[in-house]
Amino acid sequence: MGDVIDIGVLRTTLMECGQWVNSDLYNGRIVRIANSFVFKEPVFNYSAHFPFLWDEITVPVKYGSDYRLARDTLQRVADEVVGDYATHARAAWKGVVERYLIEEETVEPTVTLIANDNWMEFTVRYVVDYKRRRVTKDQFFARILEELDKTDGRVAIASTTIQIVETPAFDVRLMEKMR
Q1: Could you list the residue range(s) of the whole structural domain that residue 12 is in?
Q2: What is the pLDDT of residues 110-136, one digit of tens each?
Q3: Hey, which bits of the chain come out as E strands?
Q4: Do 26 and 95 fall into the same domain?
């Protein structure tokens, strides 16, 4: 995976992303791929007709928190951080729909909620410029934490916590040393 930096008669050259580097960042390795490879494997192009990706972040929120406030806060932060992407993505997505005859999809940030055994899990789905995915996620989490701090504990991030409610009785018997 990487950005195409040269296309030759026999080979295409990429600046590789990923591998030991998380996210969609360059790792510094230049890779040459035989052009015949294109006919054998799928090729994913992030920038052809729709230069955006859908991405998601999940935020675990403690039970007992104000889930309405949590949802409103996440939506407000999403609109602030990625709202401009939605505006630009809407026009690009329209072109994709017309070209490939696929159905409409929302490009506005959305917040959904599921409840699991441990916490309420909010998922924020949004479109982002494919080259700014990691930095946008960083901005998102920083803003979320800033805003949740302002709730004075009404919304708290959850973590895996084990609470021992009752310990069983221990029956300890010492045996005399046999002679």
Answers
A1: 2-39
A2: 999 999 999 999 999 999 998 898 899
A3: 2-7, 11-17, 26-34, 52-61, 110-115, 120-129
A4: no
